[in-house]
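For the sake of transparency, this paper describes our internal protein records without simplification. The tokens are whole numbers drawn from a learned vocabulary of local backbone shapes. One such record is reproduced below, unchanged from the form in which we store it.

. . .
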Amino acid sequence: MSSSKKPSVQSQIDALEQRIAAQDQRIAALEAAAATAPAAEAPAKGKGKGKGAAKPKKEKNPDAPKRALSGYQIFGQAERAKALPEKLDFATISARWAALTKEQKDSYKPAAADAAAEATASEAE
């Protein structure tokens, strides 16, 4: 009984060895073709064509007017001016801004509106 199974197992092994030899020949042929073929250029970075393709960057006009300052930015400038010897970081300024009441924050709105009006006037020129 065990002798009847041996020829079928041996024939399977022989078939697998033949497949391996055929694959080795294909690999050798592909390696030879790759060695003689010219080197392909590396693809450009980015996503290429399609849905998420990178768009060319727009040129910025260095003479374009700046956006108007917000109330928070005006507050930050005032706080930095008060504390000139010490360097205030954004976290300190934002914590101080968060501690202000609504009325205190609203006191910076007229200055921000003036800055916005000035910015739109400079755009019109």
The helical segments are 2-36, 71-82, 90-99, 102-106, 109-124.
